[in-house]
Amino acid sequence: MKDMTEWWDDSVRGWRSGEWSLELRDDEFADIAYDGHVVLRSVRAVIRDRNWDTAALVVDRVDESDLALTLHVHSEGLGSDLRGIVRAEVRGAGRLRVLTDLESATDFETNRTGLVVLHPPVLAGAELDVRHPGGDALHTRFPARISPHQPAFDIAGLSWSHDGLDVDLHFAGDVFEMEDQRNWTDASYKTYSRPLALPFPYPLAAGERVVQSIDVTVSGAPMRVPADAVARIRLEDGPALPAIAVSAATAPDPAPARIDPAPWSAVIVELDLATRNWRAALRRAAASALPLDVRFVLADDDTTAIDDAAHALRDLPVARVTAFWPTGPARHVSDLEAIALLRHALTEAGVDALVVGGVRSHFTELNREHQRLPRRLDGVVFSSTPLFHSLGTAQLIEALQMQRLVATQGVELAGGPLVHIGPISLRPHFNDVATTPPPMPSHDDLRDGYGSALTVSTPPPDAAGASPGASGHVGSAADPRQSAAELAAWTVASAAAFAVPGVATLAYFEEWGPRGVRGSDGTPFPVFDAVTALAELAQKPGLRGDSPDGLVWALGARTEEGTTVLIANLDRRERRIEAETPAGSVTATLAAGTLQRLFLPAVP
Hints:
Elements lengths: L3 H5 L3 E6 L2 E6 L2 E7 L2 E12 L7 E9 L3 E9 L5 E11 L2 E10 L3 E3 L1 E8 L7 E5 L5 E5 L10 E4 L1 E6 L2 E8 L3 E5 L8 E5 L8 E3 L4 E12 L9 E5 L1 E5 L2 E5 L19 E6 L5 H9 L5 E6 L7 H8 L5 E7 L11 H14 L4 E2 L1 E2 L4 H7 L10 E5 L8 H22 L4 E6 L36 H4 L21 H13 L4 E8 L15 H12 L3 E4 L7 E7 L3 E8 L5 E7 L2 E7 L3 E8 L3
Parallel strand pairs: 20-34, 22-23, 22-30, 23-24, 24-25, 25-26, 27-28, 28-29, 29-30
Antiparallel strand pairs: 1-2, 2-3, 3-4, 4-10, 5-6, 6-7, 7-8, 8-19, 9-18, 10-17, 11-12, 11-14, 13-16, 14-15, 15-19, 16-17, 21-31, 31-32, 32-33, 33-36, 34-35
């Protein structure tokens, strides 16, 4: 069995042909570069089932030559059985082709099967020419702000210029379109095949082949930026840092015999009122004796269930409460009707609590549906998970800069009310794009867990033996990196990214269990210390700054005793980092995947 360091480190293999280079990360051609300059973040073949879950694409063999890198692959899971190749091949000076040829051995219902291209986020605001299959073209730009909807449709080709290079892409085998994946904190714009306006799922017949190719042509010379041996971060005074919360454990009983008190500000508990064990979930959350952040999922077939649920909150310490629809046009959104039902139920039950609103899922839905939120909310909520489209550690780290973007834009969309971000988890706490009903508990108690513990549709990676770099929306809600030492550094970096003024709460992971800050036996994971350190700085005058490269991060707080700074290094190598604060500068040398706490005493 792999240890946690192996789970954290992506399997990376470099390939070079002339001016072209790339990294092979499992089944993905990543960081495709020309003359040392990344022109595409990634190209890979994906196989999505009818619920947008992604079948693993297993690499059976790699053939490598001076001109081509060929992956012989087969799919596993979700009823799929496709076999074939994915290949990158140099076609001449400045020309690269990436192609896939996959044949389905069985009938298979899919929402998407084919090539996906990821464009790096540094292209934000760059001019873009879109060629359509009919020959006409559109001149536009890569979105600077995170676009709620697709920025380009009906794509046969794309062209842009950046940092001295002119890049042209030609697509064959299907019609493509683009979405802004920064909505999900992915560090990319994604160009994919099979337009979403077409019906899905669609059938792949046994014996049917999916053949697609992307031709990349590059000209020019990239701009060179000299590297600095020291990473410098300037931290500036600002309002108080966000409070730190956790989510209630969703894992099956038994709960740990003893859990020592922790300095969290609240415990998030999501209660699906259509399930039979939501009362047991509420009792478990209330056992923490901490204020509760309650998220009700309304019962479609019984709008009076919210009345019983509101009564259940009497005599409990409630920090915040909201309600979401599970289906319909306002799916996973707390719209005017949902909040009206909630307010009425709270009033009838005599429960006085802050009423917040937002979305049950990602920033994506807030960006698209914020106009549905009623006025006069006491706060705005959304959750965040970096491992939605891909499970690679590179995806986890690249999400950090995107977290800064969604936090900033989320505060703007809230328009005044404070923002509460959470649950923040490695993998989704539910499948918000499923086209089939969610699994339901069979008992009134928590012997099987609830919520995310019931979302497993495939074995978790450590049980299946598959790499966590396998692509796609997860079948398992748990991730083996939850207990990795490096997750502590990632969490500090994430808080540094998310903690923009206007964000009032950050809620990381669960109290215990495979998605927790502690294991199912109550033993703290390394991330427990990181979340505790953040909680100790919470609601103190904050020190915030930008990361110079998305790999090293810092944040701090000032007290009468002095200035505390937390620094995290998510690079693959040791880094020397200097953090400049109003109280002076601190410098530290951090190994890869580590964090450090530094203190500057106040000058008498």
